[in-house]
## 1
Amino acid sequence: MDTSQIFNIKSEADFKEVTLSVFEFQYKNNPVYKQFCDLLGRNPSEVNSIETIPFLPIEFFKSHTVLRARKQEEIIFTSSGTTGSATSKHFVTDLKVYEDSFRKAFSLFYGNVNDYVVLALLPAYLERKGSSLIYMVNDLIENSGAEKSGFYLHNLDELAQRLKFLDADGKKVLLIGVSFALLDLVERYNFDLRNTTIMETGGMKGRRKEMIRAELHQVLSKGFGVDKIHSEYGMTELLSQAYSKGDGVFECPPWMKILIRDPEDALTLQSEGKTGGLNVIDLANVNSCSFIATQDLGRVKGNVFEVIGRFDHSDIRGCNLMVL
């Protein structure tokens, strides 16, 4: 399938056309997804709208090889997990598609990465292999072309000094970090930043008590001296990211879309404004599965969405067809 059309979507009509084309392609070429669709009695002859496309429970990435037939993976991205728990594996056959996705999305929402010094505080991700987030951020660091761009693990003193110096020098800085590490930073140092964007990637990774996003952003905003905290919404199973420039309201790039499903009936979609499970259409996942039912709860309002929390249990109600 020609992936260039995915990144050339200009309208809702374009999105629908490409989405239905990707569904038919994946039904015919992805054995796991085809079997799932067949169990639901959905095939391309019955699917003529985005709303009737089946969404594969994200748990399948832990138990199955969700991959286009006769394609060899170029890399395997893996999720973090608690000891003894199964981790998700995303078999990626074409890294260029992933690179096109995150580069184009970053440019769309933040402009040219060359304008930034990119600092990354992602200890939980750096301490393991197979992180898609590390791959993305490393690419942004390299393409920023800034000598001072780089990763930080536990050297918070050096990071704090560099952050203050760059900001005071008028440099345009992006600090992207995991939530618990950003909290560690503002608890140890005082900041009053004027030229820096703070972007949290979510997650306490078991290092701290979980906080609701509004509370987390209030603490970080005060600690860094900034008006808004930005956020990135992504996961191992996706090759695209949505971004929030404040208040926890996310916007997708043109090749990504969020639908909300009824938490009690996974095959029924909720109307706008109602809370339910997040179904993600990620057309960049063309060689794995572009239609994923996540474990996140949220709601859609117009072209933006909010993430409210997660399901209380691991299996997604009403769609547990894991016995393939």
## 2
Amino acid sequence: MEDHSAVPDGEGESLFDAPLMAEQERMVEAVLFASAAPVTLRDLTARMPHGCNPAEALAHLRRKYEGRGVQVVKIGDTWAMRTAPDLGFLMQKETVESRKLSRAAIETLAIIAYHQPVTRAEIEEIRGVSVSRGTVDQLLEMEWIRLGRRKMTPGRPVTFVVTPQFLDHFGLESARDLPGLKELRAAGLLENRPPPGALALGDLDESDEEQPELFED
């Protein structure tokens, strides 16, 4: 009697050695998840045990990921796992752009920090040049200075003072602990050479950093 369950030589061994399709899907999933770049069917075949069918495993896996946050997608002749297109906005993030202050802003900030509360006219008198609106607006936008009390002089001009955010950036408890040149340079606010005309900083040497008469609470 003929045995119909018999298979040609070699085929039985291959089928026996091949993992179940569910296991093949797990293998493909692991490779796609860990790969930095999309992979080809040839790559998958080379990595998986003898007798595996990565094409079929990909088809099953692709169906399983339909409607999920991550999908199995074909990119040319390669395959990869990608975020679902409608969820791409979740991968976006805001980045804080690091900006160095202009020399004018450095000088203005320094004068405010070491002579607060100070008016625009007083800043201009110390600097020897006018203070542009853009410079003040930049410091206000950074929330490193704010408007202080109006000065009890003719016209009652507004004054400027440094903010808690400014103090927090330098790890200070109060304006009396303002940093010197070394700290400002370390924070990237000053070049190694002080900008010309920066009176509040350029004329301040290490022995003058902690003079209390420069500050007002």
## 3
Amino acid sequence: MISASTAPASAPIALPRRPLRVAILGATGAVGQELLQLLDERRFPVAELRPLASPRSAGRTLRWQQQDLPIAAVSAEAFEGVDLVLASAGGGASRQWAPVAAAAGAVVIDNSSAFRMDPEVPLVVPEVNPQAAFAHRGIIANPNCTTILLTLALAPLHGRRPIRRVVVSTYQSASGAGARAMEELRQLSRTVLDGGEARSEVLPHSLAFNLFLHNSPLQPNGYCEEELKMVNETRKIMGIPDLRLTATCVRVPVLRAHSEAVNIEFHEPFPVDEARALLRQAPGVELLEDFAANRFPMPTDVTGRDPVAVGRIRQDLSDPNALELWLCGDQIRKGAALNAVQIAELLQSPPDSAGGAV
């Protein structure tokens, strides 16, 4: 198998500024469906769209821009002549096929964790480290959903006063486990309301009127894989390899929007009004707070929408150098599909137009 590091070193840093031949790997999944919708909504220049999926989905069709497009089984031949691959089919599929597509001349934007920590693969949030995208060698990694949302709030603040430590607790929706988990939450919620017993088959425990610590594999240090993704990916995206960050990740009975409670410690005091002004102007961020009405971001505020809503920004009573804030963002949209499409849009802009928030 070709590794990411052996993708052609001569691969262009930018995508051509013309309509592109685009393949979506994992077109039938929740993120794949959102990618299709976003390409249409944002009028991304598509000359040809190739939906790719596993052999069991081959032969079916999907509707896009008033066309019925046949779904093809992923293969090396499927990437011939393709300019851009948006991949959201899981780590195994990405490890197998992303290098093949890159070797064929496509730029691959991969939504799995397969290449995120590869030092030769950029890990990109366009509002935070856009310049990194242009250093790709055929593959660009889309970060973990919770990390994307977190860095949008951290980057503007770190740009003003360096961050010393971050403590984050996440409240993660069913969509992070895929379309089947979302449907199971719907069905089991009805079961519980009807007086039945909720027995989960997709997740390890029922999410219906319940929550549990994130179900990714536990590591020897007691943290789960999801929590360590947040630590390592945030450090890489923001270019702070020694950032002190700790996370606790929780699954909650919400369909598709993640929430995060974030404590940010700086090396010096950070006036709340200054932080609020920075976040109000930050790209991709929407300030939503009304202290008089006790009204702050909720998952319903961001579901199906692009911005990450931030609010309840306040001084940490236990530390004069720390701030507290709360945020919510659509996991399928900015946490996955939208970020990938924004990376593709960025690659069609001239490299010298890319600036950085960090």
## 4
Amino acid sequence: MGYRVGILGATGAVGTEMRQLLAERQFPVSELRLLASPRSAGQSLPFGGEMLPVRPVSATELAGLDMVLASAGASVSREWAPIAVAKGAVVIDNSSAFRLREDVPLVVPEVNPEALSQHRGIIANPNCTTILLCVVIYPLHRVQPLQRVVVATYQSASGAGARAMAELLQQTRQFLHNEPLTTEVFPYPLAFNLFPHNSPWNEQGYCQEEMKMLHESRKIMGIPDLRLTASCVRVPVLRAHAEAVNLEFAQPLPVAQARAILQQSPGVALVEDWQKAYFPMPIDASGQDAVLVGRIRQDLSHPCGLELWLCGDQIRKGAALNAVQIAELLVQKGWL
């Protein structure tokens, strides 16, 4: 059986990856509709051996679809997701529009797949840094309950889209040629620089990205009182995020046991060569499905603490792959 699938935001970095993953993973597509804003429509993109037109999103274009993979921003999703659902589609939304609504499942398939059974037409794809974190720490929490998480993220340009990646490349060329650095997507030059994540601040001094990690992790892992604090930073990397994670458990979790758990965990790849000091790097994580984790060690400041380092492809597992995995589960379980 094939499914009629729409990709909303088809010309963006995540939409492009979604289209490629549907083909790579041989998702049963009988019809694919590529949808975007009027200014992005008009081009043609390859799928299944043919070129498909990109059309402006409309109620007519959404009619008759079985599912919509949306990655066009929160305002677009708020406008069009309810219309798609009314037309009979299930929407897997990559924006922040619905993530914290009680009636919308927020899903990482390796962590809480059962939440999908409760959907009412809209399923939320979590924030990229949250997905990468939960894939790694949830298997540990199942063995030894987590009490506190302290995380610092090192976030690539891809998190701000294809234009941000192009801007980083342009600034790098400008820097190397002693030219002024032009900034359009980011507030400051990213080439050979870093700065706190460029999302709105709250009164407590935390940015929106940091608060997403707190609230979304609690919902996904089912730990409503989890203590989590994050510091999110933009770094001059094209396409994979890294995170330095400090975990505090209710009881000690030996390093050897944590390592053994993660070696057996779905969606995780252990990368540790202590002799060569070789641990996960964005250059290795880019293009990979798995979240790479390593440098697992005892926290010297706390007997119940562990430290670890992870890297994951922000466009892939941090966005497009997670959405496609959700679509695959809906088909497998008959939850469409």
